[in-house]
Amino acid sequence: MLGTFARHLRKLTHLVDTLSFKEVPERLAHYLLNLSDRRGKADVFELDLPKGQLAALLGTIPETLSRTFYKLSQEGIIEINGTTSDILHTLPFG
Length: 94
Prior knowledge:
Elements: H1 2-21, H2 24-38, E1 44-46, H3 51-57, H4 62-74, E2 78-81, E3 84-87
Antiparallel strand pairs: 1-3, 2-3
């Protein structure tokens, strides 16, 4: 029981640290890298959540999330093709 409690406490501490000290682009980059790793592909990902839910998960609002996706796309870091996207270059903060 203490081990389970300790794991939950570490996850909560990491979440608080992430939301407090990292900017939205860094949080999004970390999420996208984890998502592509879970799918077994290093450079292709498909969003598994609607943007509203993803924004809430990352501690932001959908408009800011959309601007962040646009900025990464304009910088040539990702390429968005509907719901599937490619990581073209190393994500910042990854």
